[in-house]
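Dear colleagues,

As part of the handover before I leave the project, I'm documenting each prediction I ran so the next person doesn't have to rerun anything. This entry is a single chain, and its sequence is reproduced below.
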Amino acid sequence: MGLALLIVILKTMGLRGDAVANDGARFWCRILGLTFVMGVVTGIPMEFQFGTNWSRFSEAAGGVIGQTLAMEGIFAFFLESTFLYLLLFQERRLGARAHWFAALLVLAGTWLSGFFIVCTNAWMQHPVGYTINEMGRVELASVWALLTNPWAIPQYMHTMIGTTITASFVMSSIGAFYVLRGEQLASAKRFLSLSVVVGGVASVLAAFPTGDMQAKLVHEHQPETFAAMEGHFHTETGAALVIIGQPNMETLHLDNPLEIPNMLSVLTHLRWDAEVEGLSSYDRDRWPTNVPALYYAYHIMAGLGTMFIAISFLGIISVLQGKLYSRRGLLWIYMLSLPFPFIANTAGWATAELGRQPWVIYNVMRTVDGHSAQVSGGNALFSLLGFAGMYALLSVLFFFVAVRIIAEGPVGDASRGDEPQVRLDRAPDHESEALP
């Protein structure tokens, strides 16, 4: 989803006469197509699991979640898949403007798809616009309430910014790789500088306002989750914000904490001396099922987000100074940062889902009541291992195809240029330090 945005920006630059940017867009379209295939083969079985592994949840809440999932399939998936074909294979036939429009519609389809999926999850986090009939089934009372769920908008913004950070850092990583090797310099520099700036802006927006808005929603509507995320076990006035520490569930405190005094009170209530409820204030049966896992997932996400801001600050300063391509240390940092946005996104979703437990629909249905009664734990484990093995094989194939695409690089005369090269196996000489 984030890559679709960057491709539209590159295509816009190409439409304005930048042939190098257009070569870069063509290259990243190939990566987008490969990733889309992986999304399809992994995403469809996930939806099937509503019926196979979570039949009681589907029977009770299918009238609600079925609406957004159907909208995602009909409005979003077909839009993005149809125009992805035109984007990947019909550039010459469409012409420059129509091809740019196809890229824009792919962007619209992917982001619309994300919206409907997030609306589904947001309703499970904060159910609105529903009634429960005499048979105990959840019925949708208002589609508009479902689509404008106050939980959904901040979560959607935070999610899409997360995808943009991921795409930006992947693009920066590959661009830095090319520059360090002295290959594909023209295209590499174009999409490297673009992704550094976009990634920097997105990293800040992920923390504020979207991350702050999401945290305040959790504090207001899921206070047990918020306390567990922060490792805040006991009610305090002037509560400290924990940077690192290890939750001790036997003594209900953090071992070896590094804290910022009063900051949690400030972030939640905008007052230094505000009282913040601790986890011990709530009934134990409402606590998240795995408090340490939730705590660590949240802090991994927040810690990596802070790291992205720091890296992006150095990157944007280097872009403004015109020295990004000659600072080899920073290029190495960008190149090696490729896996971390994926880890951060996974940790973020783990935070959301671990935090909602023990509810499958918060305050409406517990997870233990939502699974398929006829499916044993052994059957679920067997199918999980089967899918894990299949996805591991697909991941290996994805890796090799992606490596081949990267090895070939952007195709086009404009993408290669005739600029001096910087090699990994030697320090830059006097001439290569002044890369144009």
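The longest strand covers residues 241-248. The mean pLDDT is 90.

All the best with the project,
I.
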